[in-house]
Amino acid sequence: MPAQLGSWNDGPVKNAIIDFVTRVTTPNGPDLVPPAERIATFDNDGTLWLEKPMYIQLEHGLRAIAKAAAEKPGLRDRQPFKAVYEKDMAWLGKAAADYAKGDPSGIFTLVTGVAEVLEGITVEAFEADVLDFLCNVQDAHFKKPYRLLTYGPMVELVHYLQDNGFQVYITSGGGRDFMRAICEEVYEIPRSMVIGSSVTFKYGEDAQGVPQVLRSREIEQPIDDGPGKPVHIHRTIGRRPILAAGNSDGDIHMLKYARGHRRPSLALLVHHDDAEREYCYDSGSEKALQLAPQEGWMVVSMQQDWKKVFA
Amino acid sequence: MPAQLGSWNDGPVKNAIIDFVTRVTTPNGPDLVPPAERIATFDNDGTLWLEKPMYIQLEHGLRAIAKAAAEKPGLRDRQPFKAVYEKDMAWLGKAAADYAKGDPSGIFTLVTGVAEVLEGITVEAFEADVLDFLCNVQDAHFKKPYRLLTYGPMVELVHYLQDNGFQVYITSGGGRDFMRAICEEVYEIPRSMVIGSSVTFKYGEDAQGVPQVLRSREIEQPIDDGPGKPVHIHRTIGRRPILAAGNSDGDIHMLKYARGHRRPSLALLVHHDDAEREYCYDSGSEKALQLAPQEGWMVVSMQQDWKKVFA
To answer: Is the complex ipTM more than 0.90?
Structure first.
């Protein structure tokens, strides 16, 4: 029995999703889209799982920086090690606030610091470390391990699409390899279908002569955010999606790219308007929310459209 | 009925392939590999289709360069436009010969020339142009359109693996988007499963305001060759292959990477030793052929192992 949208309240958004999927999958229908072209792309942070009070991956990165700063005093006289070691919340808060306003410099300093301390480890070692973090570190507010803080209705939507012959990809502004550690468990999305930002890599051989792919400290350009999202989608998939879902200004280009398809298309924008069950904020999503009506994007209200928030 | 290896002669190579696939797919067997980990990666030029007298994509590129040089006289005073316009076979031959000897500078000049003249076109326009070329331009020796010059036994092997639950990827040193134009038709490999070298891209909007992914003139680093192959495999798949097939020195790192798997693994090296039905050459494959016995790679003799060459 195919997945249903049981966690979605009846209303225009649920109707639009079901209508769209019915249109593109009805055999012999005028809008039938062959399965190979049923591509859906989902942003991750804030769309498929929690992104507040900060990106989950950032918490993981801060721990890596703190560990390095504790072990190597020589790092502490420069950012981001100084701020993390001294628990300088003003510096850290400004980095996050600037990012929401469109200035990524502080976050970039943090990300490059993380890449620096993880330089040279194998991709397998990185993944094992991430998996341990996601299974064992709890979110301070919800008191649950991060891997349990996915949005139930969105995961249901992923499965509903998969059961209707869609190929569903994650397109995260965050780290591709970070999400690969649990994408198969929490979303049932294969790791080859995770698109995201990344460091670059080097080929090397370990002490036993076994070939390994090793992380470098360099951030691959472009990152998978804003105009980089359609570029990454082309690189990985080679087809324009007919459905895209996001929640922030970083998803604008992806949503427009999907809506530019010559076939029927659907764009969804998750709006965090549920202070009671999750958070209520427009910060970092102002432009997307403003564009939604004129671009024909469906705004998903967490408060009104979802029977529950978490999976 | 699953695909069989009917175009392969009985012998140690065919036996090794069947034994390996049986081992990793036997339910409850000691070497069973779950389908998600049954990753196979195939080099393209010289492994899945013809690469002589020159890479098929190079012929496509030379036509693009010739067209630009014919239209824009200002280009003709520098390489690669000068050599192509003047049909300077000494320059072109040296570029190819240097590449086989490990010096890619001449080929790189050609590739960057192609990227320059195709700068700014959409990925869809590029694909349409490639498809036209592959369907309508004939190889001078075999008198057939290039798309018909795939190796029958290798395509059969791809399908045999797919029918046994393998996910089969192409990992071409050549252009990813070039192969995407026909991978689904000639190999039944989805375009999302083509890994290869590429230019970088820019996001833009066309005159109608439709978002497009546009080719740039910059070559993405690393190219998908040599030590770049395991890096590209990690980026796209996120898993180490258990089977890899190649034919040249550019495949050495990929074959070693597959053989470094903690699970059973198989590496195949196609040897072009069939002057009668195709070509006979070791040039560009000398190191790989020398390494094969000590690394445990199976050398596939076109002459002895294949009943026919082309599909």
So the answer is: yes
